[in-house]
Specification:
about 500 residues; FAD/NAD(P)-binding domain; 2 domains; six-stranded mixed sheet; 14 helices; binds flavin-adenine dinucleotide; FAD/NAD-bd_sf; oxidoreductase; Amine oxidase domain-containing protein
């Protein structure tokens, strides 16, 4: 008898009160909560190891914070769009290669603008006049010097502080680094870019950790065809139940019961929870028994940022052939930028990107007002800008399935906070972007690896419990042979 089939009737869908019988040689059952890349990667690993696995997903689609919209007639990623680390060490590289996806590299390693190179940015002042490239470069160098000085501030202060506070200390010590007039506005734009990377404002970015990320090498590549094919390929053949919002997890010694909106229960030997950190922070899932204090504190002590995109499709291109069109301003809050998708994809699309408080404020507007707002910015630079033919607006902060864009370090974050978030509780395992190892929070590859790791830990735990140790070798990762090819990553830059 196929153990998968047996378990599907006996174990997965029922109640704790039901009489559950299973043959002793059957493989364990697992429920994965969340069909983002992390949950799908976890489910894929387990499925490939012949476990019975179902995925419960609250939305009516898979992908989570990967969302490729096709309504413009071409793919537009409203969530993740870059592969951070265009290198073979990136765990997503085999899939990207195998699916034949093209990466458009917007920056090499260690750019002061994180995922962009300065050379392909054009900045404009508030009157709509272009800022000279020389000033952009010079202020960029000053910004690097200021950041280097903040490292000294960190060494002097045992207690953490925000990067904004550290910058202010540096500028008081080194008045020669202060910028005036337009140069000050350009400096604010660099801070705006930093805020975009961390998806939070500079007064919330931790001085202690902002430069401690282990960013993979190879620079940053936009996935030209969109991230959707990656999700779809991984999700093939998995049992994913859409519109199943989990409201309660009852974690018993021998099994876990998961309750979804409407009251239906699902039972399995173990659960892998991959919902976003914003959902955990909002306490929208009830845990029985209650989460231990150290776990609840970890959830509280991890921050969550916000980032939103407003994508505009035009009938023609009226802007210059650069990757980024930026607007400088006296405050980083009022600075902004458009990503020119035309450069990477050939389609006449600009994507306005907002982070932190500004991203939250944009969500308070109607979509039409948000699109009008960014159109004003565009018209300021290009008075003859045509009206967009279509627009799309994201709302990651107030979307009840995400409640933010990704995890960020709070000022004063305890050192072990991610380890505590990651730690399993009996038969309950934690995946998702926020638990990823080696500081890869906030990335697709980090979320993917976190899912695979949670699946490995879950498999090991369950097989040991059942005494399968010798008979069943762990299938430790997603079947990469399905994607493995000898062709290199395809990288373009027009
Ligand atoms: C605007 C934006 C831009 C980004 N840009 C990049 C980028 O360029 N490159 C990059 O590498 N990363 C980027 N990221 C981060 C990346 O998208 C995430 O790190 C990654 O997709 C998270 O995957 P996940 O599976 O952990 O979470 P999710 O994708 O959020 O998956 C969790 C799933 O759980 C579901 N869920 C929530 N609550 C429940 C519930 N109660 N019951 C059942 N299901 C539930 C959700 O609907 C969701 O599908 C970006 C994110 C955003 C928002």
């Amino acid at each position: 008898m196929d153990p998968k089939e047996l378990c599907s009737t006996d174990l997965i869908d029922g109640t704790v009160g039901a009489h559950i019988k299973r043959p002793c040689n059957s493989l364990p059952t697992v429920i994965v909560i969340g069909a983002g890349i992390s949950g799908i990667a976890a489910a894929r690993s387990l499925y490939d190891a012949s476990f019975k696995v179902i995925v419960l997903e609250s939305r009516d689609r898979v992908g989570g914070r990967i969302y490729t919209d096709y309504s413009f007639g071409c793919p537009v990623d409203m969530g993740a769009s870059w592969l951070h680390g265009v290198c073979n060490e990136n765990p997503l590289a085999p899939m990207i290669r195998g699916l034949g996806l093209t990466l458009y590299r917007t920056s090499s390693d260690n750019s002061v603008l994180y995922d962009h190179d300065l050379e392909s940015c054009m900045l404009f002042n508030m009157d709509g006049h272009q800022v000279s490239q020389q000033m952009v470069m010079e202020v960029g160098d000053t910004f690097k010097r200021i950041l280097a000085e903040t490292v000294k501030v960190r060494e002097e202060h045992p207690d953490d502080m925000s990067i904004l506070q550290a910058i202010s200390i540096v500028l008081n010590r080194h008045p020669e680094l202060r910028q005036q007039g337009l140069a000050h506005e350009v400096l604010q734009w660099y801070i705006c870019r930093m805020e975009a990377w961390f998806a939070t404002d500079a007064d919330m970015i931790s001085l202690k950790t902002w430069d401690q990320e282990h960013v993979l090498t190879g620079g940053h590549g936009l996935v030209v065809q969109g991230y959707d094919p990656v999700v779809k390929a991984l999700a093939t053949d998995l049992d994913i139940r859409l519109n199943h919002r989990v409201t309660k997890i009852s974690n018993g010694y021998n099994m876990v019961m998961v309750t979804v909106e409407g009251g239906r229960n699902f039972v399995a030997d173990a659960v892998i929870l991959t919902v976003p950190i914003g959902i955990l922070k909002a306490n929208s899932i009830e845990f029985t028994p209650k989460l231990p204090e150290w776990k609840a504190a970890a959830i509280k002590d991890i921050g969550v940022g916000n980032e939103n995109k407003i994508a505009l499709r035009f009938d023609r291109v009226f802007w210059p052939n650069v990757e980024v069109l930026g607007m400088v301003s006296p405050t980083s809050y009022a600075c902004g930028y458009f990503l020119n998708l035309h450069k990477a994809t050939g389609h006449p699309i600009l994507v306005y990107m907002a982070a932190g408080r500004f991203a939250h404020d944009l969500e308070k507007l109607s979509d039409e007002s948000a699109a009008d707002f960014v159109m004003q910015k565009l018209k300021n630079m290009f008075p003859h800008a045509s009206k967009p033919v279509q627009y799309l607006v994201s709302h990651w902060g107030r979307d009840p399935n995400s409640l933010g864009c990704y995890a960020c370090d709070l000022v004063g974050k305890p050192d072990d906070v991610y380890e505590r978030l990651r730690a399993p509780l009996g038969n309950l395992f934690f995946g998702g972007e926020a638990v990823s190892m080696d500081d890869h929070q906030g990335s697709v590859h980090g979320a993917y690896s976190a899912g695979v790791m949670a699946a490995e830990n879950c498999q090991r735990h369950l097989l040991q419990k059942q005494g399968h140790r010798e008979n069943l070798p762990l299938v430790s990762s997603v079947r990469h042979e399905m994607f493995e090819t000898s062709i290199p990553l395809q990288i373009s830059r027009m």
